[in-house]
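hey team, just a heads up i'm posting the complex here instead of the shared drive bc the drive is being weird again. everything in one block, sequence lines first with there labels, then the predicted structure for the whole assembly after. its two chains so it's a bit long, scroll down
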Amino acid sequence: MKKLWFVYALLIGMFLVYVLNYKLQQANTTDPWETAGLRGNIEDTYVMVTFQSGIDYWKSVLKGFEDAAEELNISVEYHGSTQHNANEQMTVLEQVIAKKPAGIAISAVNSKLLTATINKAVESGIPVVLFDSGAPDSKAYSFLGTDNYDAGIEAARKMAELTGAKGAVAIITTPDQHNHQERTDGFRDTIRTDYPAMQLIAVKDGRGDQVASRAATEQILSQYPQLAGIFATESNGGIGVAEAVEAHKGNSNSPKIISFDTDKGTLDLVKEGKIAATMAQGTWNMGYWSLMELFHLHRDLAADPSAYANHKPLPVPDLVDTGIDVVTRANVDSYYAK
Amino acid sequence: MKKLWFVYALLIGMFLVYVLNYKLQQANTTDPWETAGLRGNIEDTYVMVTFQSGIDYWKSVLKGFEDAAEELNISVEYHGSTQHNANEQMTVLEQVIAKKPAGIAISAVNSKLLTATINKAVESGIPVVLFDSGAPDSKAYSFLGTDNYDAGIEAARKMAELTGAKGAVAIITTPDQHNHQERTDGFRDTIRTDYPAMQLIAVKDGRGDQVASRAATEQILSQYPQLAGIFATESNGGIGVAEAVEAHKGNSNSPKIISFDTDKGTLDLVKEGKIAATMAQGTWNMGYWSLMELFHLHRDLAADPSAYANHKPLPVPDLVDTGIDVVTRANVDSYYAK
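-- predicted structure starts here --
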C-alpha cells in the first residue's frame, strides 16, 4: 500500500508538471518578437552628436531621440563637443565612427568643416542624418530641422497680431549666423509685404549675448520711444531685450517682445508677461524622427550594404521641416521640460 | 501511514503547481504586446484618399501606405474620386469621415474647395495629413510631398550635365497648375543664375497632353533646330516631346529630353534612350510616412481627444519634403513598379 500511494503521488505530480509546462510553452510559441510592429535590436546603438553638448537646447531633442529608442527597442548614446568648436566636434565624430554604431544623428557646428567626416561615416556604411544645423553638401541621407525663414514669417504675423498691425518694430539678431539671417529675412519680408502700417526701423547686432542685446535695445528705445515691438532671433538676446524694456518703463511705450526658443529663462519671462511670445522649434520632433529615419536606413543597409549605391530609392524623406509653434502665456506651461 | 503518504503527495503536487505557476506568471508579466515596438490595432482602419484614383501615379504611394500598415499591424483602405473633380472628391471624403476611420491621408484635387471638408474631419477628432497636393490653409496636421521648385533646380542641373552646360533649352509645361509653375521657375532661375552659356528660349503650354505637347515641341524645333534640350514638367507632355524629337530627327540636333514622373511609358522611353532622364518623386515615401504620422497622431488623440487643442506640441513634423531622384538609363530598372 505504501508503494501504491507513492505511485499516485508521482503520477499526480507528473501530470501537473505536464499541464503547466504545456501552458508555459503556449505562452512562448505566440512570441510576438518576430512578427509584430516596428522593433529593433536592443544591442544596436544609435548615437546623437551635438556641439556645446551641455546646453538646455538639446534636452528636448535628446528626449525625442530616447522616446523613439524606447518605442523601437533600440539603444542610444549622446555625445558632443563641449565647445562651439568644429575641430572638437570632428574628433568626437571620429570616435563615434570608430565604434561602428547602427546610425548617427548629428547637428553640425560648421557645415563645411564637418562634411568630410560625415562622408567618411556614410562611406563606411553607417547611416547618417543631420538635424537642426545641416551640412547640405555632405552625403548624409536627410536633414530634419526648422525652416528659419518660415519662423521669421510666423514671428512677423504674431507681431502684427500683438501690435494691431501698426507702428515701428525692430530686430535684435546675430547677423553672421545663417539661420538668424533667415529669421530676419522672413520677418522683414512679411512686414514689408503684408503689413503696410508697420515699419521695420532697425536691425541691430546683439551678438547672441544678453548684455550686448540689452545695450542695442536701449539705443533703439532712446531713439524711438514709441517702438511697438522687438523681435529677438535668439533667446539670450531676448532676455537682454526684456531687461532693456523693463528699465525704460515710463520713458517708453513698453514694446511687445517676441523671442526665440524655450529655455527656462525665456519661458519664465513669458509667464511673467515680460516677453509676449517666443518661437518654439520642433526639437522633440528633430530627435524622434531622426531616430525613426536612422532605424529604417539601418535596416536597409544591414540587409544590403550597397542598397543605395545600387540606386534603391531612399526609404526616408530628403528634408523634414520640424515646424514652429508660438508660445504665449496661454500655453507656456506645456513647454517647460518634463 | 496511508494518510501521511497522501499528505506528502499533496505537498509535492502543490509545490510543483506553485513553481510552475510562478514561471508562467513571469512569462506573462514580460508580455511584449505592451512594451515592444511600434504596433497598432489591426481593427484600426486608416484611409488614403486621392483623385483620378485609377492612375498609375498613386500605386507607389499606396504601396508605401500598405507597407507601413503591415509593419504597424494596422489596416488601410483606398478611396478617391474617379475624375479630376473637387465635388466628387468632397463626396468621397464625406463618406470616409462618416465611417470614423483612425486617420485620413488625402491628396487634395483643389486646395481651396476641399479645405472645409478637411477641417470637418479634423474637428471631429480624425487625424488628417495631406500628401502630394496640399491644402495649406486647412487644419490638417502635416503635408508630405515634393518641393517642386527644388525639382526644377535638379532638372536644370541635370540638363546642364547632359548638354555640356551650353546652348538653347525650352520647357513644355502646364502653366495653370501651381506645382508645374514651380518646376518651371526652379528650372528657369537655375539656368539664369548658374549656367551663363545656356539660354531658355521658350516656355510653351503642353496642356498636360501628349498631342498638344508634341505640337508645341514641333513648333519650337522648326524655329530652333539647334535646340540642346527640352524639359517637360509632366509625363504625358514628355512622351509627346519624345515623339516630336523622333519625328524631327535629321532636321534637328536631337535635343536631350528631361521628363517628370515614372509611369511605365516614360520609363520605357528612358530605357530606349529617347528620354535622357526623368524626375522621380518620392511617392513611396509620401505613403509610408503619411501613415507613420497618422499612427502617432491617432495614438495621441485616442489617449486625449483635446491634446492639441490644449497646446500639446504636435508629435509630427509640419512639412516633409519627400525628395526627388534623377532616373536615367543607368538606374531605370529600380523604378518599374514591383
